[in-house]
Amino acid sequence: MEKNFFTDLYDFIRTGLVYEPDSGPKPFVLKEKEGQQSKDFLVEAPLVAREMGVLLRHATRLERLMKQTIAWLYDENLHSEKLKDLAGELEIMKKQQGELAPMLLSYNQAELDEHLVSASLTENQRIIRNLYDLPDNKDLIARTFEIPCQPPIAALLVFMEGMIDKKLINLSILQPLMNIKGPCDAWENDLVGNIVNLALPSNQAKKLSNFSELVQGINDGDTALFLDGQTKAVLLETKGYALRTIGKPQLEQSVRGSQAAFCEGLRINTGLMRTYLPTADLVTEIIKVGDRVPVKCAIMYLKSVVNPTLVTEIKRRLNGISTDYIVNMGMLEQFIEDYPKVPFPQMLSTERPDRAAVHLTEGRIALILDGTPFAQVFPINLFTFLHSVEDFSLKVPIGTFMRLIRTMGGILSVILPSLYLAVNYFHQEAMPTELALAIAGAREKVPFPSLVEILLMDFSFELIREAALRVPGLLGTSIGIVGALILGQAAVAANIVSPIMVVLIAITGLASFTIPDYRLAMAVRVMRFIFLLLAASLGLVGLSFGVLIILVGLCSMKSFGVPYLSPLAPRTTAGLDVFIRGSVFNQERRPDDLNAQDERKQPLISREWTKEQPSGKEREK
Amino acid sequence: MSYESGKLGVAEGIALVFILTISRIFLSTPVAILDDAAGLAWLETFLHGVSAFILFWALLTVFQRFPGDLFSVSQILVGSFGAWLISLYYMAIFFINYIMILRQFAENTLITALPLTEFNVVIAAYAGVAAIVVYAGVEAMTRATSILLPFGIFLLLLVMALLIPFYNVYNLAPWQGTGLGPVLWGSTAKAGVDFGIFVFVILAPAFHSLKTIRTASLWGMGLSLLLRSLSMLVYTLIFGVDVGREKVLPFFEMARLVYLNRYVQRIEALFIVLWVLTGTLNLAASLYVGLYILTRLFKLPSMRPLIFIVTIILAELAMLPTDVITVIEWDGKALLFFDIGIYVIPVILLVAATIKLRRKEGGGWDFDSPQ
After folding, report:
1. Are A366 and A354 a contacting pair, CB within 8 Å?
2. Of B11, B122, B136, the CB nearest to A553
3. CA A536, CA A530: separation in Å to the nearest integer?
4. Which residues in chain B have Cβ-Cβ distances shorter than 8 Å to A432?
5. Residue B122's closest chain A neighbor by CA?
6. In this predicted model, what pLDDT tens digit does every residue of A445-458 receive, in sequence order?
7. B147 interfacial to chain A (CB closer than 8 Å)
8. What is the pTM of this model?
9. Residues A158-199: pLDDT tens digits?
10. How far is C-alpha B223 from the chain's CA centre?
């Protein structure tokens, strides 16, 4: 029947009144796990079955060899080369037979990657196939080929697509190996060693006998070379994955400082650090964190400066992490810091290698995680978060002034709205009469109390900030203009907020942007809302309570054993790099609270030329 | 490094004694002193601090030969029962101080800053925040105090400086005074105000060394004494004896007079921050020391479970007096009770130590020998 208005109406009513099961395909439902399922038959199968599998494969190979021998024996054109090949094959079989017992033992291991490299290429191929779920997994390439020497040697090249440099594999591994001519008899004693030494021009080559190391290498972008009849494989350096090049810092920009920033590659970042600190004293230790997907994490420090207990402690913490996967430094930080629930940051996060290098020379430790373009520096105190890399490049008065501005900005961004609210609600007498009248006049048409006004504006500001961060870069500026100018103006015109509130929130917002550290700025924002509620309920008394609790909380915190408010509380030798930045030649000592091995950075008089006669005045002397 | 984990240094010691002795500057105690000594109130303030300080230093000589805290040293010198009595006495004075300070600061907050707020809310707020501070531990408490200390001193001096136009030197004239006798008697009787200095012998093991205690007590008490005497002097200079005796909150009244220009006037509201911080830290310090003695006496593993229970009990006790005048009256009597801790107990311990050492060594004892 043709569809018309009445049929449509009928269908609509019918659909609404009568339930009809969906005639489409059944939706996907993830079934609940039914006990422990085996991932790999070989791993979970009983020992006998596994032994049988290995023996069976060995027998199959033996059978194939026997058939081939019989065929050759009947062949009239049998010549010495074929016999030599046969002898070679028999030798491999013998070796494999000899190793069957330990190989079977190795199968007792729970994990496939703990197996030893087998003399049988087929066996190695099978382990690789099982480990990487081939052929379903398309990332792993297992390329078989033959080294054309006498007798020819079957070989297997295993690498991860996308992680390697193809040109390197083609020209530096496959080409030299495929060009080996003539007899390999002379290499028989150490075939793998000779191939590495004489045929492969790779800059890094490691002979390995267990799969765990080989698999780690393959995952990192290296290539594994297996040779038939050899119980050792070769791991060749072929890393060549695409990485962002060293770019400019995005968050910690500097007018006069260095323009290099960390990128995602761990080794590039450690190398970058080494370019800033070209000394044998710089130690890079690499620890893998994460159980299911281990990620490499570099610990960098200056051996002769850092407190060794600190190094031991960070290694203890990193080794003590049990989790599947750590995606970035933010996650790792929560796993190792002392107070993960406190909003204040306890490690300095920097994208600048020059800044990290300076901290290393003071006796701190840098942590770099693979895939994260930031280094975490610790132990640290609160005041470091108010420092900027620019301070190192500016002259003393300017640097000090900038620091004081930032400190003032930090304080203002925490307490300015709550101070206004407290005075406005409870202590009007503290305001000059003209200002009180101006505020009263401006608020005359606003129907909300000041607290609502502030919360409204502050939340709007936070919304604008968050929106500008989340939208694509080009729209960010537009959102800022729409939010700050149009919305602010319209809100005042609509009598939702008073102009003085717009000014107040604008100053608070600007003040919060003077805090150089993003995470500290976030913590300050959270504090601001708490302070607002305290001020709204108890005025300046509430504000004082808030200040005291925060202060006591900060005083009780430690960043990797170092008090968070040092050198202020506890009082330690401050040096000239806390609030006031002294001249570089006056900063003779390392921070006292770090307990560095060598406390002195430079002698008391580091400008020794000031004690000498100026050039050209020697005669007058 | 100049600090050790779990230990209090000189800065922390200065902060602790300072906060325990300075807070009464914001309460009615200066008025009581003015009532005693009139134009020489500043001298009486100074002298009662000095007498407390002398006895404390005398007691330190005992601690030089018998290392430990007040309880353990008393145990050696006067036996377990005596040690219990002495410790219970000191616990009581710190708790009484807590009660008096809590009630007076709460009342003053209601009068000056939050007239419409419920009394219970203010008491609960002060007691709650002090409990949180104690919960953070003595290190955090004293460090926070040491950070706030310079700001507090600066603000106090600022008010005194801004009041220079109101100074009237004739208010200090001898004929306005009550004579030297009442001053000396008053300074002896009011020494209880400075009972806080004995915190060093109660928490002695928490400090680095006896030298730390000596330096901290000298600086902390010295600074506090100077500021209190100066404040008393300025108060007398401004209000004179007769008007000054009528005020309830001397410092608040001083701050109310500040007039720099039409933009800087009526700044007393901003000083609320200063005295709320001072009062709360004094409460926290008193509560901590009282709880420390309690924990020590009953050999408890931690004081933390006691903090909120004791806070509730003490806050309830602070609410018992019917009005602020009764509290001020009780506070005056409490100061006399505190005098036992200033004069009697140190003398007993000193005599006991001398007798014990003479019996042991058969002769005099050398105070300067190392521990």
Report:
1. no
2. B136
3. 10
4. 262-263, 265
5. A538
6. 888 888 998 898 88
7. yes
8. 0.81
9. 999 888 888 889 998 898 888 887 777 666 677 888 888 888
10. 12
